[in-house]
Amino acid sequence: MEYSPLSIKELIGEKGDEQKTMDQVDVQVVAEYAAEDADVTWQLRGLFAPLLKEKNQEKVFHEVECPLIEVLVGMEYEGISLDTEALLQISESLVLDIQTSEKTIYEMAGREFNLNSPKQMGEVLFGEMKLVEKPKKTKTGQFMTNEQVLTSLEKKHPICAEILNYRQASKLKSTYVDALPETLNSRTGRIHTTFHQAVAATGRLASSDPNIQNIPIRTERGREIRKAFIPRVSGGLLLSADYSQIELRIIASISGDPGMKQAFEQGVDIHLVTASKVYGIPLDEVSREQRSKSKMVNFGIVYGISAFGLAQRLNISRTESADLIKAYNSEYPGIHKYMEKTIAFAQEHGYVETLTGRRRYLRDINSRNATVRGAAERNAINSPIQGTAADMIKLAMARIHRDLEKGEFQTRMILQVHDELVFELEPIEKEEITKIVEEGMKNALPMDVPIEVDIGVGANWLEAH
């Protein structure tokens, strides 16, 4: 029987200025809502609890997810302070960058047009400037002007790089720099993001209001935003602890590939080693470009990248990218074998698992559609790796949380972003906390390769990271 409980939106309205708070709703209505919520949850428990054993998910539920609830509650309660003055300065700088980009683009195009209109952008680049003979189009017949297209055309004309520059600055300003101050809690004066345990299929944590996970870190402008995240008190410190190349270390451990395991055991630059193997040259002869390409292959393989996908990422021919992948598979046979075995397992069982047993079901793994099946195969390869990384940091968070409480420390865990944990550090506890965090993260889940954790301390998140 289908049953739809009372929605929170029906109770307090949609998000926005007119949304009510719970104390503005009739007590009787709130009581019925709360009772129904509890009753439905209790009934669902009876339905799902037996499935934990049936699907072999008891370890994931009881050892990974449940201990994490208390940790996330504490992190959400603590929140983090924001330097609004720093954000204002970043916003002003971005305004100047945007204006400069606008002027440059108009000069290159020979006229003004709406830079935020993909249709007008396409007409200028391909209809008027004719950057390519046969430009790609959307299903509606409009010229494609997305990041991938523009990146591939950067060498054709400098206007493409300038448009990407304009878009990056505009997005940073609207999505983060101008929006973050709006999320400050009026009572605490801090940001209190909400963490979600069961959103990402891989098991990774997600966050909302605001989404801390998506703050860009690959560009200098994006990293600058981290400067605005500061300790509660003036003179305080933040501590950042980040797993180093965790997904590559996990695939080395899971696959058992001797070449990759040896590189991590010896503590050498894995991208340099890969370049040396793939190009068949000594380590000291590897060029910066060769290392960069090998780095993309290393991380691309983790995501089941194809020759076509690698060619687009590196802006090289498909033949060269196919040769790179072929050489990679030859030099790291254990990883290639892992990929083949994992896909075969998924095709037989319909799911893949992390080291803790977390499952990801892949309903399209045996699809007759090659494109759909290919996407499922890439998820099959990546999910045990990314999912194990997610489980590892969750286990580390629970362990570190227990150690902080047991030691009655003043330091608090306040953020989790991908493979990184951020703490509001009590300065006099620095030595003890560094040891607790490092050991907690390194020993969260046994691996056959050394796990490295980069730890930094600073007056703001950027400085600590």
**pLDDT < 50 runs, ≥5 residues:** none
User: What's the Cα radius of gyration?
Assistant: 25 Å
How many β-strand runs?
11
Would you tell me the overall average pLDDT? Answer: 91
- SS-based structural class? alpha+beta
Shape: globular
Fraction in helix? 55-70%
CATH superfamily of the largest domain: 5' to 3' exonuclease, C-terminal subdomain
Strand order of the largest sheet: 9-10-6-11
The CATH level-2 architecture of the largest domain is identified as Orthogonal Bundle
CATH class of the largest domain: Mainly Alpha
Sheet-strand content, in percent, reads 5-15%
Secondary structure layout:
Layout: H1 8-12, H2 27-54, H3 58-78, E1 80-82, H4 84-109, H5 118-128, H6 147-152, H7 158-177, E2 190-191, E3 194-196, E4 206-208, H8 220-224, E5 229-230, E6 237-243, H9 246-255, H10 258-266, H11 270-279, H12 288-302, H13 307-314, H14 318-331, H15 333-349, E7 351-353, E8 359-361, H16 370-406, E9 412-417, E10 420-425, H17 430-442, E11 453-458, H18 461-464
Helix pairs in contact: 3-16, 4-7, 9-15, 9-16, 11-12, 11-14, 13-14, 14-15, 16-17
